[in-house]
């Protein structure tokens, strides 16, 4: 096959004609307006972010976390402009996959389609696990206590048991372990076992996936009505939280406003971005909109604006009600009202969290089958994936497969792992959609929709911004920049050190500290080391004198550099984008969207990049073994 055939593109007009004429597939029912689309967006966005991750982000950044929400909203807004322009241009199911087919060609379209499959599947798994946590917590408060091994995933239990054993070996008692490690230890030790295998599985997560999959299978009208109802309920609860909480705000808690500076605020980038994931799922419903070219852009923008306003107000209320330092909990909204002895509000919040999670899962579970369906229509997946139910007018086979793809991993996978994988898949899609708008901006003969991103020439602005950004980074963070460039070794934190020690090494370290009167009256090694962490210089001096190998005390060389690879990719990309902007007079808004999304990708760990790359390689194997030869564009060229 010629190299150029890998990048053969679909014509916008041909796509529109194919959908209009129901070429080779049944049509979907058109039931959605602006209000419904905005509700789907709110349903997808307001979930784990406002009920969970907002707590950790507030603890890191203090009240100034509102700036992170604004920054993330602006970044998502830039990407939403690009999505809206494409959705107006190509109003069909398929989202970024279809847009990439038009802008970049078949191979890139396959890659982004494969990435979207991961995004929605992993996103569904993430939300199902979070829903299970809230649901079991609600049952606990009602006096119904499920065994730990049926409400926790296998990886969390296994890893938590290992870490708990290491910390207890270091002198920490079981009662002094954090609640998460205690639960993991209990789940692992009480679970039924066959040999070395312990049966630990998140059964409530399986339950909600089955229920939501059945609802999505039944039809768009039913999904729309359920989504709208759940959105009304959770918006009422959030407004109630704000209305009650504002009377308990103590402005003294907002001082200092940014206790950990800019680095503390930016520490929560991935968590806060996850709070915005979901608005792009609206674009998968394009064929089910009454007027997609007008309504899709409006629905996306309204969803982001409404959710941002709510996030900012909630963050201010939470950090005003209690000190930011107390908010590093899994259920911050319920926590602050419990702390203020308003337990009736905590109960209401717990119920609303269960509803909120279900609505997020509904939208995510609705988006993925439509990606499968679009790829199947193009011949890149087997034909049965494009089957539309004759009565319900939904992609029935793809919906059932999606249910299995989400349900099985949700029983066993770790929440942190799937959250980051969902984020990197989503950001990758955003990057390609923004780049697609830039590629097509000056091409003649491309049908334009009713919505077009406002044009601002980035020819000089990009280069000036890059130089200014690098200069300011060096001026205000000289030490950090030099450490990044020279790959200066970094001291490990207490938990990393303690959990990597053998029993003999633990004894040696404890005796060493005892000899210097550091460990007097305390046998908890992690606690001893943590006392000195607030003074980096003193902590590093203490660690340097421990009688263990440097590899256990420091991270250096390739082991350290690998974590900086994503940021180096980002910096190199900035230089290349500056050249591209100068030569092609690129539009500023989609360019800023691309840069913001690349930056947030760079904040994710290198392991997420490795796992994501492995997923893409699996996809390429499928493409070259099946999709390439069965592509309708390939068959058309042969005929």
Describe this structure in words.
It is a single chain. By secondary structure, this protein is an all-alpha fold. Among the domains are: about 30-140 and about 205-435 and about 605-630, Amino acid/polyamine transporter I (Up-down Bundle), CATH 1.20.1740; about 155-200, no CATH class. About 70% of the residues lie in helices and about 0% in strands. A hairpin with a 2-residue loop joins strand 1 and strand 2 (about 195-200). Helix 4 crosses helix 17 (about 415-440), helix 9 runs antiparallel to helix 16 and helix 17 (about 415-440) packs antiparallel against helix 27 (about 590-600). The mean pLDDT is about 80.
Helix count from the secondary structure assignment: 29
Beta strand %? under 5%
Q: In angstroms, what is the radius of gyration?
A: 26 Å
Write down how many β-strands occur, each being a DSSP E stretch of 2 or more residues.
4
CATH class of the domain at 28-142 and 205-436 and 607-630: Mainly Alpha
Shape: globular
Strand order, main sheet: write it out.
Answer: 1-2
What's the end-to-end separation, in Å? 15 Å
Q: Which structural class fits the helix and strand makeup? A: mainly alpha
Stretches where pLDDT falls below 50 for ≥5 residues? none
- What is the CATH architecture assignment of the domain at 28-142 and 205-436 and 607-630? Up-down Bundle
CATH topology of the domain at 28-142 and 205-436 and 607-630: Amino acid/polyamine transporter I
């Amino acid at each position: 096959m010629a190299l150029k055939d890998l990048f053969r593109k679909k014509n916008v007009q041909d796509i529109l004609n194919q959908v209009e004429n129901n070429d080779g597939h049944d049509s979907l029912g058109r039931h959605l307006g602006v209000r419904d689309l905005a509700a789907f967006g709110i349903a997808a966005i307001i979930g784990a972010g406002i009920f969970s991750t907002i707590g950790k982000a507030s603890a890191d950044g203090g009240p100034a976390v509102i700036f992170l929400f604004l920054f993330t909203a602006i970044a998502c807004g830039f990407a939403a402009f690009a999505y809206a322009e494409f959705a107006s241009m190509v109003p069909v199911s398929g989202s970024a996959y279809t847009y990439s087919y038009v802008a970049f060609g078949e191979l890139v379209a396959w890659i982004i389609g494969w990435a979207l499959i991961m995004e929605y599947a992993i996103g569904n798994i993430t939300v199902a696990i979070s829903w299970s946590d809230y649901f079991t917590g609600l049952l606990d408060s009602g006096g119904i206590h499920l065994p730990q091994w049926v409400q926790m995933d296998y990886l969390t239990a296994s890893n938590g048991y290992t870490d708990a054993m290491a910390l207890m070996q270091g002198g920490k008692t079981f009662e002094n372990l954090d609640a998460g490690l205690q639960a993991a230890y209990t789940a692992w030790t009480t679970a039924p076992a066959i040999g070395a295998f312990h049966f630990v599985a998140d059964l409530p997560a399986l339950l909600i996936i089955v229920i939501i999959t059945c609802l999505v299978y039944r039809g768009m009208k039913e999904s729309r009505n359920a989504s709208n109802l759940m959105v009304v309920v959770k918006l009422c609860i959030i407004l109630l939280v704000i209305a009650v909480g504002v009377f308990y705000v103590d402005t003294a808690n907002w001082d200092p406003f940014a206790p950990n500076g800019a680095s503390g605020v930016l520490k929560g980038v991935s968590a806060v971005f996850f709070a915005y994931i979901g608005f792009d799922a609206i674009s998968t419903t394009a064929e089910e909109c009454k007027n997609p070219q007008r309504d899709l852009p409006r629905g996306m923008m309204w969803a982001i604006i409404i959710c941002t306003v709510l996030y900012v107000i909630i963050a201010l209320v939470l950090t005003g009600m209690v000190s930011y330092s107390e908010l590093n909990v899994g259920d911050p909204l319920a926590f602050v009202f419990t702390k203020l002895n308003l337990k009736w509000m905590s109960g209401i919040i717990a119920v609303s969290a269960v509803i909120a999670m279900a609505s997020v899962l509904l939208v995510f579970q609705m988006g993925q089958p439509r990606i499968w369906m679009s790829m199947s229509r193009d011949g890149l997946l087997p034909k049965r994936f494009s089957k539309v139910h004759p009565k319900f007018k939904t992609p029935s086979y793809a919906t059932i497969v999606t249910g299995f793809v989400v349900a099985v991993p949700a029983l066993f996978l770790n929440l942190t792992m799937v959250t980051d994988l969902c984020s990197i898949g989503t950001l990758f899609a955003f990057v390609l959609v923004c780049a697609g708008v830039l590629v097509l901006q000056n091409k003649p003969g491309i049908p334009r929709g009713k919505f077009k991103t406002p044009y601002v020439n980035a020819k000089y602005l990009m280069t000036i911004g890059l130089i200014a950004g690098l200069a300011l980074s060096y001026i205000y963070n000289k030490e950090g920049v030099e450490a990044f460039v020279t790959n200066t070794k970094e001291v490990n934190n207490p938990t990393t050190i303690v959990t990597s020690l053998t029993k003999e090494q633990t004894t040696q370290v404890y005796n060493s500290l005892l000899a210097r009167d550091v460990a007097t009256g305390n046998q908890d090694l992690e606690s001893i080391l943590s006392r000195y962490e607030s003074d980096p210089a003193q902590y590093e001096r203490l660690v340097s004198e421990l009688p263990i190998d440097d590899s256990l005390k420091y991270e250096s060389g390739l082991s350290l550099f690998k974590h900086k690879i994503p940021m180096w990719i980002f910096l190199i990309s900035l230089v290349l984008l500056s050249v591209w902007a100068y030569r092609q007079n690129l539009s500023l808004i989609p360019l800023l969207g691309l840069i913001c999304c690349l930056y947030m990708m760079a904040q994710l760990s290198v392991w997420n990049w490795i796992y994501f790359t492995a997923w893409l390689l699996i996809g390429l194997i499928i493409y070259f073994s099946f999709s390439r030869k069965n592509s309708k564009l390939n068959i058309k060229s042969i005929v």
